[in-house]
Amino acid sequence: KQWYQRRVRGTPVDTLVEFPMINPAYYGKSYCFAYFQQWQYSTNNMFLMKYDLCTGKAISWREKNKNVLEPIFAADPSGKSEDDGVIMAQVYDSSDASTELLVWDAKDLTVLARFDNLVKVPFTIHGWWFAD
Questions:
Q1: Chain centroid to CA 18
Q2: N or C terminus: which one in the chain shows less Cβ crowding within 10 Å?
Q3: What is the CA radius of gyration of the chain?
């Protein structure tokens, strides 16, 4: 029984993406970079993925037992390029049911900061970023 197996055009796939996010300054315009929650069914883990629609290349961030929830893009107000900014998301740790807020550099998905939520955030929580 492989409950996780999904089909795309008749071909089984193990990884799908959800919660697409781009730099909000590019809504309604041409853009290259999109960020997703990448869900691997066989392991039931969720990662962060950056996909370059202009080149077809992708990079992912993952850590053992860490599950990235809905990623949010916050643009650098003085940024010059489309991916100048950060990605923020709640990250659920399946080993102890704790949750952190992680901040990644939107260019290369390097972790810039981790914040303990001090409370357990449900696995399916949604979020949004509002600049002042």
A1: 9
A2: C
A3: 15
